[in-house]
Amino acid sequence: MIEVKDADSDMRLDRWFRQHYPQIRHGELEKMLRKGNIRVDGAKVKSNYRLAVGETIRVPPVANEEEKSDKNVQQRLSADDRAFMESLVIYRDKHVMALNKPFGIAVQGGPKTRRHLDGMLDALAENDERPRLVHRLDRDTGGLLILGRTRKAAAFLSEAFQRHQVQKEYWALCVGMPHPMQGTIDLPVAKKMIRVGEDEQERMVAADGEEARKAFTDYQVVEEAGGKACFMALRPLTGRTHQLRVHCAAMGHPIVGDGKYGGVRAKLEGVSAKMHLACRAMTFPNPAGGRPLNLQAELTGHMATSWKFFNFSKSPEIIWPEVR
């Protein structure tokens, strides 16, 4: 018997289960609701029932056993894991938390991904409420990751991302030197199966068919390194999967380390072969109201090393034109 907390007020029952018992599939949930195995304040309800503070949800014993297993997983977070997660925090207020995501770690889990940030967010929980993801970064991309500290803040921020109310700035080390040195890339993209050797892989590609979706990226060269490489600032105006990587490769100046889209051209002697792409800054509406929040994440890991190698500025003045 679980009492509904303030953070879950007005949440649909199916969404409550998806958040607290992700191991229960929707079909199984519907079956248990029909049989009355799951009840709210003793009454049978449907999956779209909206919860109120203080109500009691009856969860079947089988789910309770799995919940205990989940709690054991949470308890198995080591002291090093907790210290690691805390070390990533670069901003927090009552509604928002921001992490500086390291390169090489996934934001969410998958079939072959056991260690990921979402699985360790319990380390940052306060008052029995863990931060919630509102967007994602690729495993090989580092930088600014925004979290909602409450359900309402997370819903607000997720909507801001969906409505394109978030201005993002990425930094990348790219091969060569584009001309002109600033502009807008207007190149639609689509997801297709591409043959790579003997295998077929799903990739985003430049496309102009019915399946293509508009994609726009503002770019500007901030500094260059003898024509062999450049420090590129990128502002995605749309949010297509792998958009920045596809656009840079299509310009003929792939992001260093992006073998998937840049192939052998993405290699650069003297620097790490890892992906050189980081989310540097975001400006987004404040869940508490008032002025928008503007947050930044410092370069870390191999990108910090490469910036030192080329003597690139870590705090350049980058001015973007008004969004059209």
What this model shows, in words?
The protein is an alpha+beta fold. The protein folds into 3 domains: 72 residues, Roll (Structural Genomics Hypothetical 15.5 Kd Protein In mrcA-pckA Intergenic Region, Chain A); 85 residues, Pseudouridine synthase (2-Layer Sandwich), CATH 3.30.2350; 144 residues, 2-Layer Sandwich (Pseudouridine synthase). The strands form 3 sheets. Strands 4, 5, 6, 7, 8, 9, 12, 13, 14 and 15 form a 10-stranded mixed sheet that branches. Strand 10 and strand 11 form a beta hairpin. It is elongated and about 70 Å long. About 4% of the residues have low confidence.
Topology, element by element:
Blueprint lengths: L1 E2 L9 H8 L5 H10 L3 E2 L15 E3 L2 H15 L3 H10 E4 L3 E6 L30 E2 L8 E7 L2 H12 L4 E9 L6 E5 L2 E8 L2 E8 L9 E10 L3 E8 L6 H9 L7 H4 L14 E8 L8 E4 L4 H10 L14
Parallel strand pairs: 7-14
Antiparallel strand pairs: 1-3, 2-3, 4-5, 5-7, 6-7, 8-13, 8-14, 9-12, 10-11, 12-13, 14-15
Task: Give a nutshell description of this structure.
The chain is of the alpha+beta class and 324 residues long.
Describe this protein with a few key phrases.
single chain; 324 residues; alpha+beta; Structural Genomics Hypothetical 15.5 Kd Protein In mrcA-pckA Intergenic Region, Chain A; Pseudouridine synthase; 3 domains; 27% strand; elongated
